[in-house]
Structure formats: C-alpha cells, structure tokens
Specification:
single chain; 112 residues; Double Stranded RNA Binding Domain
C-alpha cells in the first residue's frame, strides 16, 4: 500500500471508532529508517489525550494553526487544522483533532 492508502486506512479506522493497532500506526507513519517518534502520539490522541493530539499536530504540521468548536447539544467537537483548512468532527475533541491531522496529511500526499 502507498503512504496515502495507509493514512486513509488509519483515518477510516479512527473515524469508525475502532482503536488503531500498532501496525496501522506504523504503516501510516513509516519513514525511511524507522518510525517517527510522533507516531507514539496517535493511540493516546485516539483515546482522548489533547496533549498527544497537539504533540502530533506540532510534529507533522509544523507552523499550522488549529481551532476547535463544540456543538453542545450534540456533544460533537469540530477541529480544524489550517494552512489550508482541513476539518473533522467526533464526540472526542482529541479524536476530532487526530482525524483533522490525518485528513490534512492525506491531502498533502495527494498533492505530491
């Protein structure tokens, strides 16, 4: 599979609410000579860690901004990563952020 396909598989798993496996993460974040340290932030972000989501964002989208909004009645969080804007939503703010990051990385792969 290509990196884009691995990122899409990881995004789809996260969006479905299925915890990613170490293999999913390693395939998506494989770099020449090993796995990027930031890959270690994916599972904590999936499980609700905003610190992990921010660390991942800072590592893979350096210089990009971010913002969040919350639809209180529906308990849905919307996260945007921008430079340009890529958004995602989830019932967990950290998971929404993770999905937005993955969406941005997928779009960056398409552009290459």
């Amino acid at each position: 599979m290509t990196r884009k396909q691995d990122l899409e598989a990881l995004r789809d798993k996260v969006a479905a609410g299925d915890e990613p496996t170490a293999t999913n993460v390693m395939d998506a974040f494989k770099i020449v000579g090993g796995i990027g340290f930031y890959a270690l932030e994916v599972l904590p972000a999936y499980n609700g860690s905003l610190n992990a989501a921010k660390a991942l964002h800072d590592a893979v989208l350096p210089g990009w901004g971010w913002e969040t909004s919350h639809l209180l009645k529906a308990q849905v969080y919307h996260m945007k990563c921008y430079s340009p804007i890529f958004g995602a939503q989830s019932t967990s703010p950290a998971r929404a952020w993770l999905l937005a990051i993955l969406t941005a990385l997928i779009e960056m792969e398409k552009a290459q």
